[in-house]
């Protein structure tokens, strides 16, 4: 099991260079090639049971189908917006399954797969993008904070929370708590992200920065966000940085587990850059044809995270056609249920915009609330006559 | 009763907060070993330790952002922004996060964070050290904004702010930091969001807060020599505003003059004038007038006496009000 603390990537050797699958690819941690071949790595490995290996496939497929339903629901006018994670399933499932129950997650706004891995009801992602609410949940019990729309803001919240974990003395052993914060390549250009690295480093916070580098901040490619890849920046902040094949569910699991173990045992923060690709536009409101072409999409289709994993499962005879069919059926049932639940979400009452702003709402706000209710009621009466 | 400066009163209040609540933290630039650039947090780190009184990186967005995270973990941070003009790097975390997360959560999350900001001019400081940014925060739903004008309020209001489950922006008038007054340390005289009639009168109402309450009181004393009996209201809370006593005062005097250091356009005086005109229209003998800083960036310190509302400008406004 890859729980040994070896945070720094292995030194490049002539041998490891030869093992690279493509001249264009960065030197990342990879345990499963796009062709579905297992590779070994000197520092990282996984050792799942057969059932656990199959479970990752189930997570990948169901997440992809639920996400696709998000896009479909938006197209049908049932959601206002949907930010698809298509292509990033391995980054989210691999890291998500490395998170222990006692850990806390700070997501950005595309982390449906991580939410799924936590065993949480994913309806909050859909109520948020339907505009029924703002994504509120019982975050303390869930240990999965609310989706954050403002880029990189949550990295500071995670740093502060992790400082609190350390203050509570909840680190130091394998049962310690760790915190993981998700963000994208765009976030690495924000001030808050860089401040969060400073704080996490200075206070030795038990925090893992998990950067899903999906190559684009809406239309802008990596070259417009940084000169040096994010994982290399980590060293300057006093923490290890690891580049991992974000389309390899085994590798993302392995590196995340090492980083979380490091955090849990009080050895401090680290940064993972998962090199992946957003196969869909930024959101349903975006038109990606304006900034990237079919050839590029084809290049990444060949690196699909689910296809390679299925190929490997078949080759290892860990799963057969019956298993895959059963997962497809389960995913279809999940999608049907989700679809119905989204359409059944009740519209909020006018009072809901007032009632959660303050613990102790001031009198002028209560007066406004009463006015809004009275006005709404007067319109209702008017429409009846 | 004890006589002390506002700085000592704040220090005593913070000490009591740290004593009574294990989850309370103080965090900010230079607040620990140095005791803060104004010494408001003097000796607190020595007595409560580096885990509770935290010298932070020079990173304002980081201070507020991590305070939010600490609050999510169950802590009750009291942050110091060193000077008014340095709060802007934290603006997103204050306005988009601290103010909005509780509402975003549907009320399941509360963020009991206090942000102390020494503010205002009149101390001969360089640029960015004399500003009055209160209107930005009073405009932001989800925040509460208060300001003290004397040591008693400083001592009690900082404790009441720390006890609030809602985030509170706590403005401290730094030119009043060294003024001494008596503080009754046994019982809070007022609630955090109550206004206070600082002086009763019948001719006109001066409405002020923070550093200019003293200006208004001095103006009222001077006016008394001319036979004018001015009432002075110290707002204390800028969000929410304690409207009822204000309206009662206007119905009595029929005239109001708002005094504040911040620029006039869309400052607190704008809201006060608009709302009081709506609510007290038939009681008013004159429009609500404003004596404020001018609509310019805070000037070089050799000009600040011309910029700041002073006794003569207030009395001039009283005269104008009486001419209607």
Give a summary of the structure in a few sentences:
The complex is a heterodimer of chains A (385) and B (324). Chain A is α/β, with parallel strands linked by helices and 385 residues long. Chain A has 2 domains: 14-344, Thiamin diphosphate (ThDP)-binding fold, Pyr/PP domains (Rossmann fold, 3-Layer(aba) Sandwich), CATH 3.40.50; 352-384.
Report on this model:
The complex is a heterodimer of chains A (385) and B (324). Chain A contains 15 helices and 7 strands. With 385 residues, chain A is an alpha/beta fold. Chain A folds into 2 domains: 14-344, 3-Layer(aba) Sandwich (Rossmann fold), CATH 3.40.50.970; 352-384. In chain A, strands 1-2-3-7-6 form a 5-stranded parallel beta sheet, sandwiched between helices. In chain A, strands 4-5 form a two-stranded antiparallel ribbon. Chain A is globular and about 70 Å long. The model of chain A is unreliable at 6-23 (pLDDT under 50). Chain B is built from 12 helices and 14 strands. Chain B has 2 domains: 2-183, Thiamin diphosphate (ThDP)-binding fold, Pyr/PP domains (Rossmann fold); 196-323, Rossmann fold, CATH 3.40.50.920. A 7-stranded mixed beta sheet of chain B has the order 3-2-4-5-7-6-12, sandwiched between helices. Chain B is globular and about 60 Å long. Chain B has helices spanning 6-20, 44-48, 60-72, 91-98, 101-104, 134-138, 151-163, 213-225, 243-253, 268-280, 304-307, 311-323, and strands at 2-5, 24-28, 53-55, 76-80, 114-119, 144-147, 168-173, 180-183, 196-199, 204-208, 230-234, 237-239, 256-263, 289-293. Chain B is an alpha/beta fold. At the A-B interface, helix 7, helix 8 and helix 15 of A face helix 3, helix 4 and helix 5 of B.
